[in-house]
Amino acid sequence: MSSKINQAGGIYIHIPFCVRKCPYCDFYSIADLSLKPRFLQALNREMEIVELDTFVFDTLYIGGGTPSVLNPDAIEQIIKAVFGHFDFLPDAEVTIEVNPGTVSFEQLRDYFKAGVNRLNIGVQSFQEGNLNFLGRIHSVEDAYLAYEWVRQAGFDNIGMDLIYGLPEQTKANWRFDLEHAVQMRPDHLSCYMLTCEPDTPLHQDLKRDRFQLLSETKVRDLFDLTLDYLESHGYVQYEISNFARRTDTTFPPPVSRHNIKYWSLTPYVGFGPSAHSFIEPQRYWNFSDIKKYIREIEAGRLPIEEKEVLSTQQLMMEAIYLGLRTINGIDLAEFNQRFKVDFLRTFESTLNDLEKNGLLRIARDHCALTRKGLSLLDSITSNLTSLEFTGR
């Protein structure tokens, strides 16, 4: 059994409902809200039959889908079930995602009373044209109102999501969104590049030539603008897409403690349709079909679609890819101890080339990508992880 099991893990709850599915989203969700009661019963039953007695947790993340289609009573029921079934450390981080088009002040206030202490708002843009392209159900006014209500409801740890790299997007257009986001002073900002995932309506539109993706050069320019603008306005980048606001009273900055677990190969357990779990060296995931998910649980079975056991080499590859996504990079001592290899010696030739080209730096026992390197993350990690590991 891995020593990682002794670290505090995270629990993820997937709420598989949306009022309307966004054309770019490839996360599992449905618009049939009539299944909510059976889903909630199945979710509670899934928690009852899973065996996690040897684990301790310190984060709960309720995502989706659109969790804010559930009323506060349902969210409170979920939180009570999670904390009733599993062992949590004090001062746990409890996050819920909300869509500005599906919340009211009273609802947000009651989420806070139910035990949610961190809230993430899917704003995506402060421009109606961008929201229309992305198929969002909310307006710019909805976004402003939702943020105001969140603060009034008592939340002091608020995240906000934005998307950039839209077709024909200019620096001025993206800067507009960054300016308006920063003016609202969220505690956390996630800035994601638009991607066209297979089997999404957006991908179908791309194949039909209804729009063209922004060039890699222009996307890289927007990435550089993001870093420059946010760093100059008090936001600390800690992962390629994630930034926490630096304040005099909050140290360290308010990072997403839950998401950090994904990047550090810390155990996490998912509940709900399509939810993934990782307990080294095993990864498994639930059926991406709510009716099959419910049927399996009602039959007394865990709704696991598939499992895989990762080899040492696969774990090393993931540790490299995920570690290089973060600004601190790979902790060399931890990596070497975990995998019984010498990282610098194993990849010496490639690391030297990357360092000479200004893509990577090795300092203070960490190996991390530079800003230029972060913009080429996929190609760099693909090059590193394609090499044969020696000494494993």
Give a written overview of the molecule.
The protein is of the alpha/beta class. It has two domains: 259 residues, Aldolase class I (TIM Barrel); 73 residues, Orthogonal Bundle (Arc Repressor Mutant, subunit A), CATH 1.10.10.920. Helices cover 41% and strands 21% of the residues. The protein has 16 helices and 15 strands. The strands form three sheets. The chain has a nine-stranded mixed β-sheet with strand order 7-8-6-5-4-3-2-1-9, sandwiched between helices. It has a three-stranded antiparallel β-sheet with strand order 10-11-12, with no helix packed on it. Strand 7 and strand 8 form a beta hairpin. Helix 1 packs parallel to helix 2 and helix 6 runs parallel beside helix 8. The chain starts with 8 loop residues before the first strand and ends in a 7-residue tail after the last helix. The mean pLDDT is 94.
Question: Quick summary of this structure?
Answer:
This protein is α/β, with parallel strands linked by helices. It has helices at 36-49, 72-85, 105-114, 128-134, 140-152, 171-184, 201-207, 216-232, 257-263, 290-298, 312-325, 332-339, 343-346, 348-356, 371-374, 377-385, and strands at residues 9-15, 57-64, 88-98, 118-124, 158-164, 188-193, 235-239, 242-245, 268-271, 276-279, 282-286, 304-309, 330-331, 360-363, 366-369.
Which stretches are poorly predicted, pLDDT < 50 over at least 5 residues? none
Q: Look at the structure and name the CATH superfamily of the largest domain.
A: Aldolase class I
Beta fraction: 15-25%
Give the % helix.
40-55%
Second rung of CATH, namely the architecture of the largest domain: Alpha-Beta Barrel
Main beta sheet, described?
A: 9 strands, mixed
Q: Overall pLDDT, averaged?
A: 94
